[in-house]
Design brief:
The structure holds 2 protein chains of 2 kinds. Chain A is mainly alpha-helical. Chain A is built from 9 helices and no strands. Classes of the chains: A mainly alpha, B mainly alpha.
Amino acid sequence: MFEFAQASQFFTSFGLSDLSFLAEAAGRTLLISVVSISIGTVLGCIFGWLLSVSRWAGAATLGLFLDAFRSIPLIIQLILFFNFFPIIGFPLNPFAAGTFVLVLYTSALVAAVARGGIEAVPVTTRRAGRSLGLTYWQDMRYIVWPIGLRAVLPAWAGVALGVLKDSALVSVLGYVELLRASQILITRTQEPFVILTVVGLFYFALSFPISRATARLERRWQQ
Amino acid sequence: MEYTFHWRPVFRNLPDLLEAGLLTLEVAVEAMLVGIVLGLALAMIRMSGRRSISWFATSWVEIARNTPALLQLFFFGFGLGAFGIHLSPFWICLCALSFNNAGYLAENFRGGFQAVPDTQVKAARSLGMTYAQAYLRIVIPQVLRIVYHPMTNQMVWSVLMSSLGMLVGFRELTGETQFLASKTFRIFEYFLVTAVIYYVIVKFILAGSRVLSWRLFRY
């Protein structure tokens, strides 16, 4: 009994202030995800376009590079780059290093999606556009973009959701996002089940609306 | 650059890394097999349309797909500890990966089964086939074609996800690398070699899947 009374002073239970701590951490999860996904998507679209236009040597080089990001666990990529930057005399903080890796990771995944989108547009449609006098970029903007986007938006949303969830791994570098915050709270309160459930709800609240919205959009476009 | 690379400790420990790579492959394959069985069951339950049980399958699928795999791993690791259930690192990893695989595969299977029209079963039945025959000879071969590629992807994910085992103290490839790297502080060198090993494992799986698909879908 005595031991318990002492222990209860060390381990305070989960309270309302902890919830706001978690909410703040959820904000950081959202921040790193949104930054990585937006930059990664732009980069990925460029890579995807390069893959679709380049001859085999270029496609092979870029493809191999991007393929590595898809075939190596993200956690290893994070540890590698986090330890690589100090080697070249340019140490980065966890947020910057995490964002850097997540951007490359996202762009590798988006590149495959973007390439698929470009190739989903029939060549004949594009030729027809060009014959009507559209320039290459007009053809890209007014023909390839709208048709390709519809074909691959669900796949892109899948990538974005994946990155949102995978951003949890940045906790390994010490960036206090949602999952890292839960570890801190668990150490203090010794209530892993409650806290992991709450954190799960936070992730669910971030991810579920997006997955539902894309499912609905996909259904509407199919009609 | 003041840093000098030291590769010798890594290559001296390469046998340990490769052995850990086998462990990674083992847990990934086992989690995949359990995931296929559970995923099929979940898909069947969801398609049965019975409210009393389908809510269970639906929530499993949604939780598996909408929370990070790492969180699921921590749930099996620390969350269950709150109920006095303490699994070994291997079992934590296997349970969490199976849970995750089952959630993703269930959706693939459901899509696969829905893509085969019900009328085909009726046609097969009217030709005199039993239900079992209709499923084994008509439905399953078509479903397999549809879900084969997503299943290959999931297998790759299974390998990549198993790297999270490091964070619950499981010494598969990543965990072993971390262990060895912390002894010598050659973190970059160790993880670079491990990255190459993962790359080879993934390429191996993709190549194997392609060879298998030639044999499976010849006609």
